[in-house]
Structures are given as C-alpha cells and as structure tokens.
Design a protein that fits this description.
It is a single chain. With 349 residues, this protein is an alpha/beta fold. 45% of the residues lie in helices and 11% in strands. The protein has helices spanning 8-13, 34-40, 45-50, 52-65, 79-83, 105-109, 121-134, 147-156, 164-172, 174-197, 215-221, 223-232, 251-254, 270-277, 296-310, 330-343, and strands at 71-72, 89-91, 95-97, 140-145, 202-207, 240-244, 261-263, 282-287, 316-320. Strands 1-4-5-6-7-8-9 form a 7-stranded parallel sheet. Strand 7, helix 14 (270-277) and strand 8 form a beta-alpha-beta unit. The relative contact order is 0.14. The structure holds coproporphyrinogen III. Coproporphyrinogen III binds next to strand 3.
Amino acid sequence: MNKLKNDLFLKACLKQKTERTPVWVMRQAGRYLPEYRAVRAKADFLTMCKTPELACEVTVQPVDLIGVDAAIIFSDILVIPEAMGMELIMEEGRGPVFPEPVRDSASAAKLKKVDPFKELNYVMEALRQTKTALDGRVPLIGFTGSPWTLLTYMVEGKGSKTFSVIKNFIYNQPKLAHELLTEISVVASAYLSAQIESGADAVQIFDTWGGILSPRDYNEFSLPYIEMVIEGVKRKKHPVIVFSKGAHFALKKLSKSGADVVGLDWTMDIKKVRKEIGSRVALQGNLDPTLLYASPERIKEEVKAVLKAYGKGTGHVFNLGHGIHPDTDPENLKAMVNFVKTESVKYHK
Ligand code: CP3
C-alpha cells in the first residue's frame, strides 16, 4: 500500500486529506473501449476472466487510456456461483445464464464449499499480475457481488425485469433463502480476504439488486449479509466500499455497516446524503452514466454540479452512478476524468 505513486483514491476512501478528488468508473474495463474489444475478439468473456494475462491487460487499459485513479480487477460477480458448482453461460447479447438455477433444497444441496485459492485462483493470479503491471501507479480494487444480488442470479437463472422467481423464493422458502445467503456470505468474505492477500488495495461489494426489495425485506435479506461479509474480511487499512443500487432507504444503515465508503447511484442527492451520513463514511458517485452521451461542455457542467453538491473537503470518490454503457464514446469519459481532476482542486484548499 505504501509503495503507491498515486494513493488519492485510498486516502479519499479513508477521509484523509487529498489535493484533489480521485476518480474511477464502474465497468471501466469494458466494451466501450476499442482496445478491450480487440482483446475480446480473440477470446470469449469467461476465457478472458480465467486467463490472468488477458484479465491483467484489460484491467490496466483504462489506467493507460483514460487516466483513472484506480484500477478494478477484470472479472465478474458471477464467478462465485460458478465456483460453487453452477454452470455459467455468458450468452452473446443476452447476458449471463445459469441453465440449472437453484430453486429448492435438492438443487441447493448440490452447491459446494469454495476455497478461493483453488476454484478462484485465476482471479488471485490476475490480481498478482496486475499489481506487478501497475507498478504502483494506482491502487487496485477487488470486488464481490453482495449475497442478495448473487442469490438473485442463482435463483432467477438469468437477468429479470420482475424478479418474480426470487421474490416467490424468499416468500415461500425463507428458511432456505437464509441458509443460502449465509453460505454465500461465507464464500464472499473468504473471497475478498483472498483478493486482499493477493494484492487488492480496496474491495467493493456490488449490491446491484438491493433496490428491488422493500425496506423491510432489505433489512432481512440484504443488509445483514452485507454486514456479515464485511465483518469477515481480513484486512488492515484496506477500505471496503458498498454500493447498493436504488436503496435510498438503506443509506443510513449502510453507513453503520462497517463499510468505509457508500456508493450512490445518480438518483441520490449527494449533498443531502453527505449531511446524513458523511461524518461516518466517504461517498462514491454519482454522475448519471447516460450523461456521457452529452457534449463535453455539458459533461463539464454536470461534473462541476456533482463536485459542488458534495462540497469542500475530503471523503468523495468521483464515479458514475452505475456502470458505464458500452456505447459511450471513450473521449467523453476522458473529458469527464480530466474535468474532475482540474475542477476538484478548489474543494481541497
Ligand atoms: O468494473 C469493471 O470494469 C470490472 C469488471 C466487472 C464486470 N462485471 C465485467 C463485465 C464488474 C465489476 C462486473 C460486476 C457485475 N457483473 C455486476 C455488478 C455491477 C453492475 O453493473 O451492477 C453484475 C450485475 C454483473 C453480471 C453481469 N456480467 C451482467 C448482467 C453482464 C452482461 C452485461 C452486458 O452488458 O452484456 C455481465 C457481463 C460482463 N461483465 C461484461 C463485462 C465487461 C460484458 C461482457 C462482454 O465483453 O461481452
């Protein structure tokens, strides 16, 4: 950690003083970059994830090409269910599919225990190689899906609009749901600990589907397991970021979850949220990803608006409010990153 040439991101996560606001974006290693598509043309997505040289190459791309202040390891949240024994298919244009989803105690019983240094060692090797390739230029972020978000995919079997299958599952088989959430939490904790041991400087928990739950159900099915994961992570000063998309109602509880940073989507008011929880945690976010379709002038205005809304002082990690869209012009992202770098200086004097 101490050999880093640029540690702005880690400092902001821990609310230490910085000379400007650090910036990275979710899904920054991805299809919007022609350089990513060139690698992807030679290998399918899961092969890329499982080939440390390729994962390393695309992880470093946005650092070189865009100038972000942190790298996030190229992988996917769904490698955990796969490691637990579920067949995972990435269908071209359709997204991830589990042909045999978990629906009852018989299918749940087939899930296996995971040793991250065995079944997921390709991620650890990718982290080690990326750490070497980065040579301390910026910190490296590891990640996991939240237990709730992973269970949603494992039960639905694919993306969903209504989430009928997972809702049916938690209301009719709540005991099994809790058993599975506990099992996934144990794996996710060990997985994050292993990533830190393999070189990750910080870790993020993606609770992409937290916001589909009612506040009461969130408190039963998502929050306790996020807390269990954080509690179990073996770390020193490695920050934990939690991003629960759409979970407006949960922000206060997340600020007491043990996380150092709470991620905000673009529908949240960063000024208001800072007042409510900013004394306890740093905040990450929250420019609307579709704003990158606008002109550089408009992007600059919005960057200024987000920086101003957060206000003076440390504790802000600039990011988008969700992953960057594949049809974004990389030049617009580069412009956004440069605006953050120049426009944020005055908030740190
Ligand atoms: O942020 C990064 O750059 C690191 C890499 C990363 C990927 N997925 C690469 C990826 C991360 C952090 C993820 C997390 C992830 N994966 C989440 C949580 C974050 C979020 O966006 O809410 C979720 C829900 C998934 C599951 C997943 N993986 C979906 C729904 C898809 C299909 C999406 C699509 O647009 O096709 C994936 C595939 C995937 N994961 C791609 C990438 C770059 C596209 C694969 C390709 O190259 O074809």
